[in-house]
């Protein structure tokens, strides 16, 4: 009041507080806390219905008056597409897990048989096993992009969804790098005539290079938070074309090294034939190495190209190619010698049984 008088204004008579009624004679009363406590469940349900009516179809009311998509809404893909994708991924993940597990168990029981330069194939199998386990976790746990009945607002809201996405990216990068290392060490062995012992001396550096370099994309993703939600797969998906191009470069370099290696092995074969020596074992090695290398390289290269296409059947093709590259890497272990070794470990010699069971006679 004093401030108005000092400015030369007077308080309007219509706003005189003395003319207004005093409580409890007010026309509108402020509800007390007891009124809120005494509200019936029907009134709360009515308010929720009013909120739900504001949200469009396939959405539910969330926090901060937002409408969130339902977990199992079929906006981009039909339920048949999701069922087919689930069956497809289960088949390939289980197949890959069985093949790679056998390969790794064979290596653990007979490590001296699989030395460098063939050793990177086992690490490629290990990466495939990790991928298969992640897909099986997704199948058992359900869509990781869901939080209750609704889809996550942000991928970073779920630690499990973000963690598995980072694991998949780490495995993808490590697979491409181990393919490049595999071609590199075979090039050193065939073209530069490096021995197994010489390659083993630098194996620690190769391990450090692959496993440390695979973490660089993870740091970039965590800083940029370039993570999306994929309705079809149920995974938190990291979509970065720069990362795909990075992986394609290493796959292409590996293919070039593999081509030089094949030329070097062909020259060695011609030298053996010129000297009059039988090249049968070398020809078997070239055939085996060529089939496995072609399967790994084709699987990695075309699966990376699938990232540039947004199509349901392309996604199915990408899944099969990713697992096929790990399966081809595990084929190096499959040989008659491997099966004979497993047969010897799992089934005791019948000849020894027969000798122990023969009765002793005195002469």
Q: Strands, helices and their partners?
A:
Layout: H1 2-6, H2 33-37, H3 41-53, E1 59-61, E2 67-69, H4 79-109, H5 120-141, E3 146-147, E4 150-151, H6 159-190, H7 196-201, H8 203-213, H9 216-224, E5 227-229, E6 236-238, H10 241-274, H11 280-305, H12 312-330, H13 336-346, H14 350-357
Antiparallel strand pairs: 1-2, 3-4, 5-6
Helix pairs in contact: 4-5, 4-12, 5-6, 5-12, 6-8, 6-10, 10-11, 11-12
H and E order: HHHEEHHEEHHHHEEHHHHH
**What is the CATH topology descriptor of the domain at 99-332?**
Rhopdopsin 7-helix transmembrane proteins
CATH architecture identity of the domain at 99-332: Up-down Bundle
What is the general shape? elongated
The helix content, as a percent range, equals: 55-70%
Oligomer: single chain
Secondary structural class? mainly alpha
Strand count, sense and closure of the main sheet? 2 strands, antiparallel
Unreliable residue runs: 42-52, 354-363
Number of strands: 6
How many helices? The count is: 14
Over all CA atoms, what is the radius of gyration?
A: 34 Å
Question: CATH class of the domain at 99-332, anyone?
Answer: Mainly Alpha
Overall pLDDT: 80
**CATH H-tier superfamily of the domain at 99-332:** Rhodopsin 7-helix transmembrane proteins
Report, as a whole number of angstroms, the end-to-end distance: 135 Å
- Give the strand order of the largest sheet, numbering strands 1, 2, ... along the chain: 1-2
